[in-house]
Amino acid sequence: MNEFEINEFISLKLEDNSTMIYIKGKQFRQCKHLILNIRTDEITSFDNIDSIDEAVEDINFFQELNQNEENISPETEFWGHCSNLQVWAENNYDTRLLHSNLSFPLLRELVKAGDIKAKKVFREEIAKRIESGYVPVIIYLLNQGYLDFLNNEEKEIIIVSLKQIATNLNVEKHKLSISTIYYHISWFYCMLNDYDQSIEIGKKDLEINPLDMYLWYILGMSYNEIGEYDKALIAFNKCIELRPKDKYNWNNLGWLHSIKKAILIKELS
């Protein structure tokens, strides 16, 4: 057999010696790696390991994984993937049981396909994995836009956790991760029209990563909204300095000048 059905939404096929995942009959993705040496019911028994993501990050485990993958046939690998996905589905789509770059895209597609169980756990899994404090998964979820699937109340709870996580991280070791977290928090507050908070968090990010053009853009927008046009001008000019060929940076600068001109005309009239 070269085809296996997990449930009414998920099936796998062995095609040209590669394992393919299908969602409601639509091809989703080729499986790249097979985790052979960690049984899903034993994950919590590993010291300081709570997910497949953490296990794979371990250098010794990853080396052993690669060695094992070299010695297995496509058919064995196929049935291994089938087993892993079946256990994942039977455990309410617990994202700790698959690598995050597979489990979350899968959950997202299952929600689109109308899987009621996936709809129930999707947002819970996003929140749970962010609040776990495991940095690589947090950064993955933030950069892939999964925070957007939460409502504002859920986001506000998550933001509290993110602030605490960023504060506790070692700056030298996690500089880019802290910067990424602060950037997303600043953007979140900007979208909520809480510009003072957006600026406060943005300044913390600048202390770590002053060359983040997107953060300067958020600061420019926030300063503009509270009427601090000179500071907004500095921010937009910084965007141009960092990326002079980006036409949107020039458009933002022109837009700000037009606002300042309109205000000046109004004051003089």
What is this entry, summarized?
With 269 residues, this protein is an alpha+beta fold. It is 64% helix and 7% strand. A 4-stranded antiparallel sheet has the order 1-2-3-4.
Describe the structure.
The protein is an alpha+beta fold and 269 residues long. It contains 12 helices and 4 strands. A 4-stranded antiparallel sheet has the order 1-2-3-4. It is elongated. It starts with a strand and ends with a helix.
Strands in their spatial order, largest beta sheet = 1-2-3-4
Could you tell me the mean pLDDT?
A: 86
Oligomer state equals: single chain
Helix content: 55-70%
Radius of gyration: 23 Å
Please state roughly what percent of the residues sit in beta strands, choosing from under 5%, 5-15%, 15-25%, 25-35%, 35-45% or over 45%: 5-15%
Low-confidence stretches: none
**Number of DSSP strands?**
4
Major sheet details: 4 strands, antiparallel
Would you list the SSEs in sequence order as H and E? Answer: EEEEHHHHHHHHHHHH
Overall spatial form: elongated
Structural class: alpha+beta
Straight-line distance between termini? 81 Å
**Helical stretch tally:** 12
Topology:
Elements: E1 3-5, E2 10-15, E3 18-23, E4 26-30, H1 52-57, H2 59-70, H3 74-90, H4 100-113, H5 116-131, H6 135-143, H7 152-168, H8 175-191, H9 195-208, H10 213-225, H11 229-242, H12 247-268
Antiparallel strand pairs: 1-2, 2-3, 3-4
